[in-house]
Backbone:
């Protein structure tokens, strides 16, 4: 029986997508729900699982092809045998007279998990050479990592040697250039950044924050917090809670522009900018005002891992009323973040460094962080923007306010 493999339903705002590399070739076996191919939209990368177990007898679309929702891109024969090409499958009697040698790929009873496939490809490891420890002999992420940790001699293929100085000289000789098409995600990022710059009246205000109270609290409770909640107490939960604290005081910063109307949101969906191999993405902490510090930390950690693995779903990125961008993790001292439309403001967090400051007429050393708020001046006046940032500053310099909600 021939099963059609179709592109899944995309979100309403996404009309087409791009196929990445196929994980199966024609004639190879596939298990039900095993990932056949990754599909890149302008928001996320989706996995397309096999609708049934069988043999891939026809790939109708190649890698890098543009497709739309519902389009048929491959055929799976649920009754064919692995290692038989589509032509041979069509000429079954002739194939029976001359048996086709078995294909070296893993049998369908022991598939390779998607995360394991990705890591194996990154580390240059052949998954077929790994004994799976998962259910039904499946090769798991842990199996691949264990294989990667073995001495180089145990690897199925020799690791490439680093380029020699002479080789590097050849690579840079003659002023070379390389033209690489933008991914759909990078195109979308570029489009939205230009849209933000051209449609909003963006202005940025700055302030400095003494992070010593937050650092002291974090140091005091870090061990107990981690034991209780099984997650580290980071700084981002403080910034998220401080932002929500300030947004409650100044609701216009949490609003958005829709034509000639101002839409005030009675909820706090905070976008947290996260770097991924394919570019910057902004997953959403929904109802952040109702989340505990531990819930914020866990959710951010989940987003970071999903972003690195390319597993963020469209629902993770949809919506948002305010965003936070933390350039400090990369060492940024100061920046002017760009608003993520249709939002009206964004908080930029930077690196905390020991700096000389004046307190009570004395020069002292304090761990200081420069904060920046970029805002849409069409609906947010300078007064509200400045006071909003001051409210964040006050909350971070006296973090008990976040617990007592004062």
Residues:
């Amino acid at each position: 029986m021939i099963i059609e493999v179709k592109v899944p339903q995309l979100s309403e705002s996404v009309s087409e997508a791009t196929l990445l590399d196929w994980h199966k070739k024609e004639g190879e076996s596939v298990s039900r729900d095993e990932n056949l191919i990754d599909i890149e939209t302008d928001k996320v990368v989706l996995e397309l699982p096999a609708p049934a177990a069988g043999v891939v007898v026809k790939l109708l679309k190649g890698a890098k092809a543009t497709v739309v929702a519902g389009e048929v891109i491959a055929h799976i024969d649920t009754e064919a045998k692995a290692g038989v090409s589509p032509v041979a499958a069509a000429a079954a009697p002739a194939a029976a007279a001359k048996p086709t040698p078995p294909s070296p790929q893993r049998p369908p009873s022991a598939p390779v998990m998607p995360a394991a496939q990705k890591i194996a490809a990154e580390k240059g490891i052949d998954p077929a050479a790994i004994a799976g420890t998962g259910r039904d002999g499946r090769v798991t992420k842990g199996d691949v990592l264990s294989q990667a940790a073995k001495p180089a001699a145990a690897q199925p293929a020799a690791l490439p040697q680093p380029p020699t100085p002479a080789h590097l000289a050849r690579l840079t000789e003659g002023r070379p250039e390389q033209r690489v098409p933008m991914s759909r995600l990078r195109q979308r990022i570029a489009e939205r950044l230009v849209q933000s710059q051209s449609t909003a009246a963006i202005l940025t205000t700055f302030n400095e924050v003494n992070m010593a109270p937050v650092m002291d609290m974090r140091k005091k409770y870090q061990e107990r917090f981690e034991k209780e909640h099984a997650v580290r107490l980071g700084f981002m939960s403080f910034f998220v809670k401080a932002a929500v604290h300030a947004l409650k005081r100044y609701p216009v910063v949490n609003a958005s522009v829709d034509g000639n109307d101002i839409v005030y949101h009675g909820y706090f969906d905070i976008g947290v900018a996260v770097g991924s191999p394919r570019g910057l993405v902004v997953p959403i902490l929904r109802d952040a005002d109702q989340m505990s510090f531990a819930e914020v930390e866990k959710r951010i950690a989940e987003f970071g891992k999903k972003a690195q693995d390319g597993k963020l779903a469209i629902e993770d990125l949809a919506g948002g009323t305010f965003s936070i961008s933390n350039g400090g993790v990369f060492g940024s001292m100061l920046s002017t973040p760009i608003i993520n439309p249709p939002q009206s403001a964004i908080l930029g967090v930077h690196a905390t460094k020991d700096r000389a400051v004046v307190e009570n007429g004395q020069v002292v050393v304090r761990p200081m962080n420069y904060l920046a708020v970029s805002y849409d001046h069409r609906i947010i006046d300078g007064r509200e923007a400045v006071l909003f940032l001051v409210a964040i500053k006050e909350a971070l310099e006296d973090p008990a306010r976040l617990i007592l909600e004062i």
Q: What stands out?
A: Residues 87-98, 102-109, 152-159 have pLDDT under 50 and may be disordered. The longest strand covers residues 362-376. The radius of gyration is 26 Å.
